[in-house]
Automatic annotation (TrEMBL):
Residue ranges the record marks as coiled coil: none
Pfam families: Methyltransf_11
Residue ranges occupied by any Methyltransferase type domain in the UniProt entry: 42-144
Gene Ontology molecular function, alphabetical: S-adenosylmethionine-dependent methyltransferase activity
Domain of life: Archaea
SUPFAM superfamilies attached to this UniProt entry: S-adenosyl-L-methionine-dependent methyltransferases
Keyword Methyltransferase attributed: yes
Name assigned to this protein: Type 11 methyltransferase
One Gene Ontology biological process: methylation
Membrane in keyword set: no
Matching PROSITE patterns: UBIE_2
Assigned keywords, A-Z: Methyltransferase, S-adenosyl-L-methionine, Transferase
Length: 196
């Protein structure tokens, strides 16, 4: 919903392997299905927990985060050679049109996506970040979002009021011109694959 900075004093929690309870490496790779030559972006990469998982399977992974302190933390940990750091908001990416073969976000869609707004003509606007993703992902490229669901229990993750439901996230991406390839709701999270 714009962006939230993540408290750096809690950054270690992003490296906790118990997070695979909500999204595993295997699931993420299945959803994104990168090829060894693909150029992809991890949107809101944080400490690089899931960037590290995708990096061995892609040509380049841009670690995109609005917080340069997160990039510093990731550099201290050590990043694979295929990772390039980009300090930017998702709504203003320094990429050329159609530059990316794909993009993904884990537990971050609710931070960068905006609620759908009907304009004066009654048409729904996708918001800056989704429109920007439609600009930089090439036609046929995938956008994967695994995020906390507003229909979850709130047992972990942000407050329910800060989250989107699967239906809301689908509507946001469709308003941006993406076609939904798969959309799954789970007990605490949703997993979405959209195609540009
Ligand atoms: C909850 S953390 C998740 C990090 C990582 N995706 C993971 O699962 O380990 C969200 C991250 O997204 C970044 N972020 C939030 N809004 C953003 C935006 N609009 N553009 C770029 N980064 C953003 C934050 O700085 C933070 O590092």
């Amino acid at each position: 919903m714009g962006f939230h900075t993540f408290p750096m004093e809690r950054a270690d929690a992003l490296e906790d392997p118990s997070r695979y309870r909500f999204c595993s490496r295997e699931e993420l790779l299945e959803l994104l299905a990168p090829t060894a030559e693909d150029v992809v972006a991890d949107l809101g990469s944080g400490t690089g927990f899931y960037t590290d998982d995708v990096a061995p399977f892609a040509g380049t992974v841009y670690a995109v985060d609005v917080q340069s302190a997160m990039h510093d933390r990731y550099r201290e940990k050590g990043a694979p050679e295929t990772v390039e750091f980009v300090t930017s908001e998702v709504s203003a990416l320094p990429f050329a049109d159609d530059e990316l073969d794909g993009a993904y976000s884990t537990m971050t869609h609710h931070e960068y996506a905006n609620p759908l707004d009907a304009d004066s003509a009654g048409d729904e606007s996708p918001g800056d970040a989704v429109a920007e993703l439609a600009r930089v992902i090439r036609p046929g490229g995938r956008l994967v979002a695994v995020d906390w669901s507003a229909d979850g229990t709130g047992e972990d993750g942000p407050d329910l009021g800060e989250r989107y439901s699967l239906e809301e996230a689908v509507a946001q991406l469709e308003a941006g011109g993406f076609t939904i390839e798969s959309a799954r709701d789970r007990p605490e999270t949703f997993a979405l694959v959209a195609v540009r």
